[in-house]
């Protein structure tokens, strides 16, 4: 099953309009040109590079965030040297930066296709509600990380 809206019956103009509505205010400023570059294998997402899971949460990619977090927790139980830890961390951040726009474009296209298939009464409103950004999830995770860090350094 092809989840990319580019290969569906949606016109190019409608596709752009749906993406702009779903992504929100940063679509024209940032993502439109990045999504166009993905077909050319170009583009680097600086926010995904520096923020990782926080960026995934901000962009409402909760399943990807959960998978990222679960893999991180599993990795914490694997004994490795500090040089291996640094190498893995560098690889993950570079991977997030290099693949972030592609991951997000795929996510956007899948969500738009799903929303269209449900035929909501107000398509534009549904795209806005399910798209856009979420400031509170990454903030909540940051607070949890800070609290856990504080507990581990004061009670361990």
Please give the count of helices: 8
Low-confidence segments, given as residue ranges, are none
Mean pLDDT score: 89
Number of domains: 1
User: Using only CA atoms, what is the Rg?
Assistant: 18 Å
Give the total of beta strands.
Answer: 0
How helix-rich are the residues, as a percent range? over 70%
Distance separating the two termini: 50 Å
The biggest beta sheet is recorded as: none
Describe this structure in words.
- There is one protein chain.
- The chain is an all-alpha fold.
- It has one domain.
- The chain is built from eight helices and no strands.
- It has helices at residues 12-23, 26-38, 46-51, 53-58, 62-76, 82-117, 123-130, 136-154.
- The termini are far apart.
- The relative contact order is 0.16.
Short description:
The protein is mainly α and 156 residues long. Helices cover 74% and strands 0% of the residues.
Annotation keywords:
156 residues, mainly alpha, 74% helix, elongated
Task: Itemize the secondary structure elements and their pairings.
Blueprint: H1 12-23, H2 26-38, H3 46-51, H4 53-58, H5 62-76, H6 82-117, H7 123-130, H8 136-154
């Amino acid at each position: 099953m092809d989840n990319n809206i580019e290969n569906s019956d949606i016109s190019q103009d409608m596709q752009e309009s749906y993406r702009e509505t779903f992504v929100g205010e940063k679509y024209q400023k940032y993502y439109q040109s990045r999504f166009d570059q993905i077909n050319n294998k170009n583009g680097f997402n600086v926010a995904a590079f520096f923020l990782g899971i926080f960026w995934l949460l901000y962009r409402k990619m909760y399943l990807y965030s959960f998978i990222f977090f679960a893999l991180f927790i599993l990795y914490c139980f694997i004994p490795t040297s500090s040089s291996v830890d640094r190498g893995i961390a560098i690889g993950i951040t570079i991977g997030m930066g290099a693949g972030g726009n592609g991951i997000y474009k795929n996510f956007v296209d899948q969500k738009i296709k799903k929303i269209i298939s449900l035929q909501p009464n107000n398509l534009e409103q549904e795209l806005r509600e399910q798209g856009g950004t979420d400031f509170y999830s990454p903030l909540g995770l940051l607070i949890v990380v800070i609290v856990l860090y504080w507990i581990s350094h004061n009670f361990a």
